[in-house]
Amino acid sequence: xxxxxxxxxxxxxxxxxxxxxxxxxxxxxxxxxxxxxxxxxxxxxxxxxxxxxxxxxxxxxxxxxxxxxxxxxxxxxxxxxxxxxxxxxxxxxxxxxxxxxxxxxxxxxxxxxxxxxxxxxxxxxxxxxxxxxxxxxxxxxxxxxxxxxxxxxxxxxxxxxxxxxxxxxxxxxxxxxxxxxxxxxxxxxxxxxxxxxxxxxxxxxxxxxxxxxxxxxxxxxxxxxxxxxxxxxxxxxxxxxxxxxxxxxxxxxxxxxxxxxxxxxxxxxxxxxxxxxxxxxxxxxxxxxxxxxxxxxxxxxxxxxxxxxxxxxxxxxxxxxxxxxxxxx
Length: 329
Ligand code: SAM
Ligand code: SF4
Known about the structure:
Bound molecules: S-adenosylmethionine, iron/sulfur cluster
Oligomer: single chain
Order of helices and strands: EEEHEHEHEHHEHEHEEEEEEHHH
CATH class: Alpha Beta
Structural class: alpha/beta
CATH architecture: Alpha-Beta Barrel
Number of helices: 10
């Protein structure tokens, strides 16, 4: 098992498949100038699969989430999912994607064994989408979402980040649209993980702001009391249900005490937290002939060093070197 000194057990593995992306969301990447991981440093599909196998068979991982950068840009994705589905015990598998290209691949991914998807969409307005992501691909995302639903990659979750002055007036419209289309919407507070280091605490839209805005149009009832277990989203029933909405308040209401995550970057580094400043190199071990047992040992040791919290509340907080796109969100 992957346990830490605070008694938490990691069962959920986030695997970043690339740091590259076909969008340039302002809260994530600069318009240009971001340097990419070097090709030889990236794990191959076989290396990724080997690490996932060790995680699943030796370390108690039960959930695998593929992310990035944009994971649909990885050519071997469908085959990776298929090979991962053949592991025993079979992990549950999901994908976090911006949805571009999903219209083409959703059915193949479902056939390969993918269980569900999270698609990121921050706005219903094509012009705002263009400003937020610096690309004209709004319709591609909507098409990807519809294809995911048709392929049974359900529940299809939609992740939205609200940015002041851009889409912070859209929370109720996004929720009405998600309810109408059978998607489960989750708002994510903007975190200090952008490559440009432009995040400001007093400039972000908080969970409280989001809920106040939603309550102007919907009745929200907390789901399952105040307990959210290890799930980062606090969820509310919308107008009595069955529709729900989630808010991931990573900044204002952190959930570190119940964290069950471990992360693998596209270049083979284990991270214990999005905000960690340390990493443990599994790629080096893999490439110098380490056994599965040795790799499992390195991973366990990394998790044993996991800190109690993100450190966001500490005035001395320092943003990690890697941006979100290279960590895997
Ligand atoms: N490209 C894929 C996507 O956008 O879904 C997967 C990677 S992306 C880094 C994963 C999630 O992180 C997305 O939902 C995105 O909105 C979110 N994200 C990126 N930067 C963020 C930030 N600074 N604060 C909060 N969420 C962020
Ligand atoms: Fe790309 Fe996802 Fe980052 Fe947007 S949030 S730039 S889609 S990696």
